[in-house]
Amino acid sequence: MSNSIAAVEAGVRHVQGTINGLGERCGNANLVSIIPNLILKLGLKPVQELDLTKLSSLSHFVPEVTNLAPDQRAAYVGRSAFAHKGGIHVSAALK
After folding, report:
1. pLDDT at 64
2. Which residues partner with 53 through β-bridges?
3. Which residues are the active-site residues?
């Protein structure tokens, strides 16, 4: 993902990838995390309007079809994507 984001920041205007990074080759760019980063963090507009609210259901559809468990910690779409334990932060701050 980082390489794709850096490439866009350097001027690239076409990023290829797959849903959840699954595909023919290892290391495919995960569009499920790249697209929200480009739109929400970099403020870029896609060529075609996208509904990010459907990204989670798309991401969960692929593991369902491939009979794999969805990544619970996947950025933006995982069950634990926005969960964290405050105690860890407090512990680090105290140290």
Report:
1. 93
2. none
3. 89
